[in-house]
Write a structure and sequence with these properties.
This protein has 14 helices and no strands. It is mainly α. It has one domain: Na+/H+ antiporter like fold (Up-down Bundle), CATH 1.20.1530.
Length: about 325
């Protein structure tokens, strides 16, 4: 069990180091809000689309195929998104925070934590199924997140603007292009220079987003949104994964499949959620706080879920 705790910490600690660097650089006066806005736009419109395309394109479609698990993951995430939005509407009067809360409750950092934790639990034999789930998670994460944020962008609901922004959103476009390229088996890596460039561009996204998050995070302002933050964190790390795991176990999902469900629903809020919230007009301070607190506490909650499932003989 100690090894699983170390794996969780090792997966999360690098993120905190990059966040800390961003916080330090900002404290030294090297960056201002205008510069951060430009960096954030660059991450949102250039690097994140490449990352999303690569993650979807690289996910296996034939090996370790488990239709039951994939259907559960897709339906479960859609239901979790609906529950998240309903909870945000019922608990948060401010429109610019509702989309941020809803996104924070269901969108997990599966790519960062999924593979290391599954391999820690089951070795390389579980990596194929864990990677396969990316093809389900990434499209649903991005589509629902854009809808939630656009629904309350600017403090009012504008259906026509929301529809236009969803269609032209670079993350949605990258998701669709990635799925299409995967479906037609486009030989992206046939030319090594193109494949290397894609990997390099995709690799920039996460560290850049973490750096921007750290430079934008202001701990002193957390008291202004503490209630919204803790509601989101409780749902993301405890309520939603608890419901998902109970449902999966009742349906007979065990072993690697149940571990994949645990990470899909119980991983901390993705750092990309801050980038998207800032770009689409959500409360970016709340979004930053959710990512930081979720990431810190996830070491404990993921370890707790692993211990519980192992003690019950489910994984």
């Amino acid at each position: 069990m100690v090894n699983h705790m170390i794996t969780a910490v090792n997966a999360v600690l690098p993120s905190f180091l990059i966040i800390a660097l961003g916080l330090y650089i900002r404290s030294r006066g090297k960056l201002d809000d205008k510069s951060l806005g430009k960096f954030n736009s660059l991450a949102f419109r250039v690097f994140l689309p490449f990352q999303i395309f690569k993650n979807i394109y690289d996910s296996p479609m034939g090996e370790a195929f488990d239709l039951k698990l994939l259907v559960f993951g897709a339906v479960g995430l859609l239901l979790a998104g609906g529950l998240a939005l309903l909870t945000a509407i019922l608990t948060e009067p401010r429109l610019d925070r509702r989309g941020v809360m809803a996104q924070g409750m269901f969108r997990g950092n599966y790519v960062l934590l999924g593979m290391p934790l599954v391999e820690s639990l089951f070795g390389s034999s579980g990596s194929g199924l864990a990677a396969l789930m990316i093809a389900v998670n990434i499209p649903i994460y991005n589509v629902l997140s854009v809808i939630f944020l656009e629904l309350y962008a600017g403090g009012e609901i504008n259906v026509r603007k929301m529809a236009k922004d969803i269609v032209t959103n670079p993350l949605i476009d990258a998701t669709l292009v990635g799925l299409l390229a995967k479906a037609v088996n486009l030989p992206v890596y046939a030319l090594p220079p193109i494949g290397s460039a894609l990997k390099s561009l995709a690799g920039v996204a996460t560290p850049l987003c973490l750096f921007i998050l750290g430079a934008s995070f202001t701990p002193a302002n957390m008291h202004g949104y503490a209630r919204s933050l803790w509601i989101t964190v409780a749902f993301k790390l405890l309520v939603i994964p608890g419901l998902a795991l109970a449902a999966a176990a009742a349906l007979g999902i065990r072993g690697v499949g149940l571990a994949v469900v645990m990470i899909s629903f119980g991983a901390p809020t993705a750092v990309n959620s801050y980038t998207m919230a800032r770009e689409l007009g959500g409360d970016s301070e709340l979004a930053a706080g959710i990512v930081v607190v979720d990431t810190a506490l996830s070491c404990l909650t993921l370890f707790g879920w692993i211990v519980l499932l192992r003690s019950l003989g489910l994984i």
